[in-house]
Write a structure and sequence with these properties.
Blueprint: E1 5-9, E2 18-21, H1 22-35, E3 39-41, E4 50-55, E5 58-68, H2 73-92, E6 97-107
Parallel strand pairs: 5-6
Antiparallel strand pairs: 1-2, 3-5, 4-5
Helix pairs in contact: 1-2
């Protein structure tokens, strides 16, 4: 079973450790996708379209999305990956993240 927390700061600095729940990463991804007008979760809510796991201090994020019809898929997916990376680094000061975006189709309306 994967860890439910990612260790951000070790105990060795005298202040104790800081650990962030996988749910925090879920929320960051969900908010970032919701703010993007060209990308939508495959299932509409993100509950089945989003998977966050971690091992050995590295977080893996898998997202299944639909892209708005007529958009440049590579450009909007790359922009989403960049935005997710920026948001994660800004909000939790963590950069050991792999973000896999899987395009499963298009949204036509």
């Amino acid at each position: 079973m994967a860890n439910e927390y990612v260790l951000i700061q070790e105990k060795n600095d005298g202040f104790g450790q800081i650990a962030v729940s996988n749910n925090v990463f879920n929320h960051i991804v969900a908010i970032t996708v919701a703010e993007n007008k060209h990308i939508f979760f495959e299932d509409g809510t993100g509950k089945k379209s989003l998977s966050v796991s971690n091992a050995n201090g590295h977080v893996n994020i898998d997202v299944k999305v639909r892209v708005q019809y007529g958009q440049d898929v590579e450009r909007v997916v790359r922009a989403l990956q960049d935005e997710l990376r920026r948001n994660i680094e800004m909000m939790v000061d963590f950069s050991s993240v792999t973000i896999n975006v899987n395009v499963v189709g298009f949204k036509f309306n």
